Structures are given as structure tokens and as C-alpha cells.
Amino acid sequence: MSGYRRVLNAIDAAMQRDVQFALLVVRLRRLRETELSFGHAIGEQLQRETEMQIRDALRPGDTLFHIGESDFAILLPAVRGEAHAELAAAKIARLFDHPIQLDRHSILMRITVGGVVSSPQERTPEEMLMAADHACAWAIHSRHGYEMARGIELRPPVGHSVLAEALRMNALQLHLQPIQEIATGRTVAFEALARWTLPDGRTVSPADFVPMAEQSGLIGELTVWSLHAAMRHLAAWSRFAPDVVCAINVSPLFAADAGFPGLVERAMSIWNVRPQQVMLEITETAFANNISAVIESMIVLKNKGIGIGIDDFGSGYATFSYLKDFPVSELKIDRVFITDLARDARLRQLVASMIDMSHRLGIHCVAEGVEDQATLDVLTELGCDQVQGYAIGRPAPADEMVAALASSRSPA
Q: Do 310 and 331 form a contact (C-beta atoms < 8 A)?
């Protein structure tokens, strides 16, 4: 019997008892990326290690089901309301705050947790599982990594064909998030972020639609859209803020494509932007496979004057060895090292080492995920160059951000 059918049977049995219970869905993110980077054997080890850690955190009587390659379900047979279930979801989400050690690899596992509590209203096992699954999808928007259903409306999943049509109709939106220079407090860059809102009002997270694009062969179209949308707005603010850079994310699966440098150059030519205004950011996963092809493409772009940044630095997908040959302009420290920086002395030492190393290599350092003044104060003391996060500014529609920048640069 499949894990999916077993969990449905367990939910049905729990519904027959007059006791409130809860269901959690746990989703492993970036599992496919990990398998592409390190092989299926490491991916299978990662699944086993994740399952073992979850089992160790459960109470006697709780039941864990493996319901898909990347998903688990947990039945909590007796809970004292939604707050109790939410504490369980938070506990599971926190299990993976630190990297998992597998052989010689240190891998940071990204997970989301969604939960639903049984209620007097009639609900089938399928509907309850769907509610928890939907909450899990919404959890990507939460800073804590978990979300409770709380009446989330159940709607059909989004398929590849819907994304293809959205790209064809230019239906995605561009948001910009400011990056601030610590020494001056000035906005020195914006990170360009793709957003997708469906006609029915639902939002689809980049953590969902970017892997969808990679798996369905749409990553080329999504990359072209991202380049042109970002550079169109960069051209607009260049007229009054030529010193402000645009950081554009590049999919690791597309970074090694031989045609990628040409795509970037054509976009710059169409929108008449200078290469010094462009920073291409790729995650460390780009270096696990095809490292020579990635380096070759990035050297071509760096020789044109384009900045090259490493996103999610320190997240464990690669070693420091690529820094020897790779033309890096910027290191962006992963938020997992920043979130508790003001409260964790060990994190403080790790971040200090990253900043020192980047400066010794002539690379400027950006900390992402800065959400409070205490964290900003620590980064200032450690000599970090730039910061990004909710304490600096949330992502907002590109037109609004460009207008705000124009206002700030206008003479008093």
C-alpha cells in the first residue's frame, strides 16, 4: 500500500474517534537540485537522514508517512487545539536550521511545514490532506517555514502549461528589493525578483515556479523574461541614478549554457544599459556540476564588465575551492547565518570569517535576511559592506521602487 493511501486510511480512522487531531505535511525543498549536484545516492541519504531526524522529534503515538519523493505527512492523534499543532509544526521546521553532514558534504536542507487541525465540520481525508498540503505551499512565504491552514481555500495546483502561457503573455511581475551600503546608508543596488500572481488572485512562489521552469524546459524563457524585465527598469532609473546596480538571479541549470552570455549581451544592447550596472547572481549549486562550463560563461561576462555574485553563500552546496578560478565580484551571505546573528556568538564568528575572507580576495560582501536593527549593528561592527532584508526594505513592484528612488534623488 502506498504512503499516500496509508495516510488517508489513518486520517479516516482518526476521524472515527471523538478526539481532536492534526495533520502536518513536510516538504523537502531543493531535493532535486541536490540530486543533480551530488547524485541520487546522496539524495537518498538525505531523505533517510531527514526522515530519521523527524522521527526522533515526534511524540509516542505520532505517525510519520513518506508520501512522495520530497514529502512526508505526520498524524498527531491528540492535540489541544491549533496552537498546540502549530508548536509541533514549528518544532519540525527548526530541526533543519543547520546543515546536515553527509560524507564530505555539508548540505543545508530547506523545508516547509503545513498543518491542519480536525474540526466539527465534515471534511474527507482527501480534503484534510489537501488543506495541509496547501498550507505547506503557503509556508514558503513565512519567515518561520511553517503555516497552518486556517481556512485556506483549496484550489487546483498550477501546472507547467499555465507557467508557459504566463511567460508567453508576459503575465509575471517584477519586484525590486533595495540593497543598502552600510557606510553611507544609501541604496546602491536593487535585487530583481520575479513574482507570479494568477488571475484568481493566488500567488505562486519563486521557490515553486523556478524549479517548475527548470524541470519543464521553460528555464530559458524565464531567464529571458527576467533579464529584459530587470534591464527595462534599470534603464529607467539609470537616467537619474546611474550608480545604482541591478542584481539579477540566474538559474544554476542555465548558468553553464553556452548561449547565456549572448542572451545577457543582447538584453544590455536592447535596453542600452552599461555592464557596470549589472550584477548576475548565481547560487553555489551552479558549481557542483559543469563547473568548467559555468566558469567559462562567467569569465566571458566578467570580461565585458558585468559583476558576478555568489548567492546563498555558505549554504553548503560547494566548497571554497571555486573561488580560486571563478571571477567573483560579490559574495551574498545566506540568510541562515544572519537571522540569529545578534543572539548567536558562533554565527558571529562564522560571518566575521566570511567577511574577512571576501575582503582579502577583493570581493565585496552582502548580508541578506537583515530584519532588525540589532543584526544591522553587528554587521556594521564586523565590517560588512552591504545589507538587504526587511529592516532595509521589503520587495515592492518595480515601478513603485523606481519612483521612490527618483524622489530620493531629486533636489530638495
A: yes
DSSP 8-state class, residue 267: H
Q: What is the pLDDT of residues 168-194, one digit of tens each?
A: 899 999 999 999 999 999 999 999 999
CB atoms within 10 A of CB 254: 19
Q: Are 301 and 280 in contact (CB under 8 A)?
A: yes
| DSSP single-letter state for residue 338 | T
Encoded amino acid at 224, one letter? V
CA separation for the pair 253, 265 (Å, rounded): 19
Q: What is the mean pLDDT of residues 351-364?
A: 92
Indicate the class that CATH gives domain 160-409. alpha beta
**Percent of the residues in the chain that have a pLDDT greater than 70, as a whole number:** 87
> Is 376 in contact with 389 (CB distance < 8 Å)?
no
Instruction: Indicate where the chain has its CATH 3.20.20.450 domain(s).
Output: 160-409
3-148: what fold?
Alpha-Beta Plaits (3.30.70)
Over residues 270-294, mean pLDDT? 81
CA atoms 325, 327, 333, 334: torsion sign: negative
Q: Which residue has the cell 498543518?
A: 115
From CA 193, how far away is CA 331, in angstroms rounded? 18
Alpha helices in 202-344 (DSSP H): 206-216, 219-238, 252-255, 260-271, 291-303
| Max CA separation in the chain (angstroms) | 71
284 — pLDDT class (breaks 50, 70, 90): low
| Dihedral, 395, 406, 230, 170 alpha carbons, nearest 10 | 80
Give me the DSSP letters along 37-97: HH-HHHHHHHHHHHHHHHHHHSPTT-EEEE-SSSEEEEEES--SSHHHHHHHHHHHHHTTS
| Residue 153 Cα distances to 5, 31, 156, angstroms | 23, 27, 10
Residue-averaged pLDDT of the chain: 85
Task: Check: pTM over 0.70? Answer yes or no.
Answer: no
Q: How far apart are CA 285 and CA 323, in angstroms?
A: 14
